[in-house]
Amino acid sequence: MTRRQEAPQEPGPLWVHAFEALSRVGGPGTRAVLWLQDGTPGRRGYETGVDEMFAHITMLGDLIEGVTVGGGEPLRQLRPVLRLLSRIREETSLSVVLLTGHGWDEVVRMPGAAALRERVDVLLAGRSERERRPGGGPRGSSERTVHLFTGRYSAADLQAVPDAEVVIRADGTFVVTGIDPPPPGG
């Protein structure tokens, strides 16, 4: 094989913090929500391949309208995230919402920014600041900017998303999810 004929490099694994299969707070409709770590293994997280995560998402079938990817910081794992989003865009009808702590001006300067815009319906950019909480829905903070790349959703669709939800698992444990959910009892 010559240099130009080399096989494409795999994008690497996804470092996952958590996955919620059926959520109403990650964006419009019922969504699979994938929280990624900042790109390195951690105590609570796990490593998985892009194809395995794609299969996990598509097994949900018609139970979900889309996928939300947040973190940590998902853009620290840009190559595997782009690969996952490419498969979602090309092989399903699912929508994609992506949350990043990077400001919009930082995102547009990143290598792969154009590819990212082609694979995402809604991008929420900027740091989430708790003292500026009244952003509503998945926006979380008024400091985050909303970028609608397709006609699939409107600002009103995002505003209608609940701020938080409580998920009670079959084993009796529960988790509070959402974008900067309020603390229990708060």
What does this structure look like?
Strands 3-1-2-4-5-6-7 form a 7-stranded mixed β-sheet. It has one domain (10-178). The radius of gyration is 16 Å and the shape is globular. The chain contains 5 helices and 9 strands. It starts with 13 loop residues before the first strand and ends in an 8-residue tail after the last strand. It is 22% helix and 26% strand. Residues 1-8 have low confidence and may be disordered. A hairpin with a 7-residue loop joins strand 1 and strand 2 (31-36). By secondary structure, it is of the alpha/beta class. The chain has helices at 50-58, 78-91, 104-109, 113-119, 155-159, and strands spanning 14-23, 31-36, 46-48, 66-71, 95-100, 122-125, 145-148, 164-168, 174-178.
How are the secondary structure elements laid out?
Elements: E1 14-23, E2 31-36, E3 46-48, H1 50-58, E4 66-71, H2 78-91, E5 95-100, H3 104-109, H4 113-119, E6 122-125, E7 145-148, H5 155-159, E8 164-168, E9 174-178
Parallel strand pairs: 2-4, 4-5, 5-6
Antiparallel strand pairs: 1-2, 1-3, 6-7, 8-9
Provide tags for this entry.
alpha/beta; seven-stranded mixed beta sheet; two-stranded antiparallel ribbon; globular; disordered N terminus; 4Fe-4S cluster-binding domain-containing protein
Q: Termini, distance in Å?
A: 61 Å
| Low-confidence parts | 1-8
Q: Supply the number of structural domains.
A: 1
State the shape: globular
**Sheet with most strands: strand arrangement:** 3-1-2-4-5-6-7
SS elements, strand count: 9
Helix tally equals 5
Strand content: 25-35%
Give average pLDDT, whole number. Answer: 85
- Specify the biggest β-sheet: 7 strands, mixed
Radius of gyration using CA atoms only: 16 Å
The SSE order reads EEEHEHEHHEEHEE
Give the structural class. Answer: alpha/beta
Helix content: 10-25%
